[in-house]
């Protein structure tokens, strides 16, 4: 992935770093020599948008996916309520689409025996709760018969918090093990501390514990949820006074664990039909909604920018992308920061007129190709033929000179990078339906989006994403070169080994 030297046959490692390639190392003594017998080595994948705690918890929580009928879901809720030891009954994997309607609070009351039941939607943007939960919510939190979306769901999360640090530590370790088994050697956790996907106000603590114990097998960057910022009294000349404690921000930390971007929500998600569109969803009478947090997202973006944060703005629908781009333009007007490297997370529906603006504002698009592998049929129907080609673009970003990073958003979908690379090159959903075929890119460019692109999105391009002298010795061993396979085989290619800092962290 180093354009100056795209291929080599031998690679030397010392102290967790690449020291040289081929002739640079041939005459050096080595304590150990590994012969990979013609296998392909690529830089470890960088997944710049994951949810490790959520992934790890989800894998051990009562799961109703695939949601086929209300009766089946309620049977799972009943069993989970009977097995629950604490006050809360957590159920995940919910999706109203196959039901044609939402579950109701009354149904959860009956199935959950009156307990505090939270059935979380697969998108992470909505949930259905029992009356016992509704009774705890502050006045003014809107719900429809127990269904809460976006900021309403964040209010439920606030009630549910905090998860125990020990529980989070186990969950994160479990998710990290899955990441390295899929070849991911660096990732960014997309928002800790508060808001929609938070688990604890001290959510960095389990990561620090794992790091100290040598049990964090990959590099992790923690994004901070904007809702975790609070007014801080600094010196009057220091500008905006919204900060996390001690004034920590993007860039703080070490090579294995550090702080990343400030995560801001502009809208919801397509699965929950809350992504904000300029035109209504096909077959629905609305175009989603902007995220109505307690704070104005534009204000949050500008304040975060002025305070030196990198911003990662969640914007899925084209209307939300407008909001994000406008806010970033306003931020740069207030104080130009050409190296800020702001990101738009998802960029799920981008109109042609919006593409040049990404480039003008130097915004990185952090897309999730696997969304279209798993949900492409639904999304394409929901957008109609006019807008379906704008979904989770690939090649258009490259054509417009926009920095592109691919990511998983696990556990919204399974996170295997090679599955996503295969999709980016082929643009076929799991059922074989073309989704935006004009956006297909080469396998090489798709791999670039999952290595160099992800590293750049995290500000880590001097460390990871390429294998070159001085870079971290993070790589995957594959049984074949993805660029030489047929396109339908790329997504099925297994990861044989994963190495981080010159040490094996996964062997299949
Ligand atoms: Zn996410």
Automatic annotation (TrEMBL):
InterPro entries: Amidohydro_3, Metal-dep_hydrolase_composite, Metal_Hydrolase, YtcJ-like. Gene3D superfamilies: 3.10.310.70, Metal-dependent hydrolases, Urease, subunit C, domain 1. Residues 32-506 form the Amidohydrolase domain. Coiled coil: none annotated. CDD domains: YtcJ_like. This is Amidohydrolase family protein. It comes from Streptomyces pyxinae.
